[in-house]
Design brief:
The complex is a heterodimer of chains A (85) and B (273). Chain A has 3 helices and no strands. With 85 residues, chain A is an all-alpha fold. Chain A starts with a helix and ends with a helix. With 273 residues, chain B is mainly alpha-helical. Chain B has 10 helices and 2 strands. In chain B, strands 1-2 form a two-stranded antiparallel sheet. The chains are: A mainly alpha (85), B mainly alpha (273). At the A-B interface, helix 1, helix 2 and helix 3 of A face helix 3, helix 4, helix 8 and helix 9 of B.
């Protein structure tokens, strides 16, 4: 599977699982644990997409773009970690 | 939650999702005031729900745009780095500048971009053998053509994205309004690829803010859930429209949206919104 398809499927799986849980949570009288996990999976989907992009670029031995993807992962995860401290 | 409120949240999310998929804009400039005025939310709560809506719309649209090759993942990641550098610099500088000055600069840039997009025709440079890593391709579903393009002025575009990130973090308005014109007007990325790439990028940008609000407990889960459902549905509809619109129409509609966004920012600066 090429990199674009891998990223697309990662995003698709993230949003489908996330939204199924969100809809279930909303329908079941705002069931907070289900909503919580649904939203968490949904919110993390872009990060999973970037990680898959990094893996895809490394497997293609496209080192320039793999380095860029690694920097984005570091910035995004680091930024979120700093903001949460 | 009352069903009427849930339906209103879904409708709000759907509107923003369509805008995000069509134009690569997050829609925070609309989300936040509507959530505050119509739903009585505080600024932080509204921003948190808005970010979740942006992520849902971006992920929904990108799952299609990336597979079709419309969203340029490599370029998006590169500009994500430069935009983030700008956003950090902007957050540091913002304390020393008045918000109204920054907002006026932002509006001026948006209006200038809107005029340029209407008046100047789109320039796409076909790749040559020396294009190397800056040569890309996608298939335009409007007419079935394979569009090949070479990203030009990478340094200039990257610097402009630093500026976009700076203005974005200083004014609180999403960077898509500047990044799309930068990609299209400076880097000569075709409009459809530019807006799709921006749509992919806004999800990554919004992730950091959304996850922070999520773990700080400032996110209203039920409101965020309603907006996310709508944003996803809107994004799917938006991707359908975006793939079938002609480039000329997309650029003209984008210019109109930029002018409306500039007007909304001016109203906010004037204390009306």
């Amino acid at each position: 599977m090429n990199m674009n398809r891998s990223i697309a499927w990662t995003l698709r799986i993230g949003i489908v699982i996330g939204l199924c849980l969100i809809v279930a949570g909303v329908l079941l009288e705002e069931n907070d644990p289900i909503l919580y996990w649904g939203l968490l999976i949904l919110i993390c989907s872009p990060l999973f997409g970037v990680i898959v992009a990094f893996i895809g670029l490394v497997s293609e031995k496209d080192w320039f773009w793999a380095a860029i993807a690694a920097i984005v992962v570091a910035i995004v995860v680091g930024g979120a970690a700093v903001a949460m401290l | 939650m009352e069903i009427v409120i849930l339906l209103c949240l879904i409708a709000l999310g759907a509107g923003a999702g369509i805008m995000g998929a069509l134009f690569g804009l997050g829609g925070g400039v609309i989300f936040v005031p509507v959530l505050m005025i119509a739903f009585g939310m505080g600024p932080a709560e509204a921003a948190a729900v808005s970010l979740v809506g942006i992520v849902a719309g971006s992920v929904g649209a990108s799952s299609i745009f990336v597979e079709k090759g419309l969203a340029n993942v490599r370029l998006g990641l590169l500009l994500e780095v430069t935009t983030t550098i700008g956003a950090i610099a902007g957050a540091l500088i913002a304390a020393y500048l008045d918000e109204w000055i920054l907002s006026l600069v932002f509006c001026a840039v948006m209006i200038y971009s809107a005029i340029r997009m209407v008046l100047s025709p789109e320039k796409v440079v076909e790749p040559t053998k020396s294009s190397g890593r800056m040569s890309f391709e996608y298939r335009d579903e409007k007419n079935g053509d394979a569009i090949q393009y070479e990203v030009q002025n990478v340094k200039g575009g990257s610097v402009a994205c630093v500026f976009a990130g700076m203005l974005s973090s200083m004014t609180g308005v999403g960077g898509g309004a500047i990044k799309v014109p930068v990609m299209n007007l400076i880097m000569h990325v075709p409009m459809k690829a530019a807006s799709s790439t921006s749509s992919y990028m806004i999800g990554i940008t919004a992730f950091s803010g959304a996850i922070t609000y999520f773990f700080s407990g400032q996110l209203d889960l039920a409101f965020a859930g309603g907006v996310a459902i709508g944003a996803f549905a809107g994004a799917i509809a938006g991707t359908f429209l975006a793939r079938r619109l002609s480039t000329g129409h997309l650029r003209r509609y984008f210019s109109v949206v930029l002018i409306i966004m500039a007007a909304l920012v001016l109203l906010r600066v004037g204390g009306i919104l």
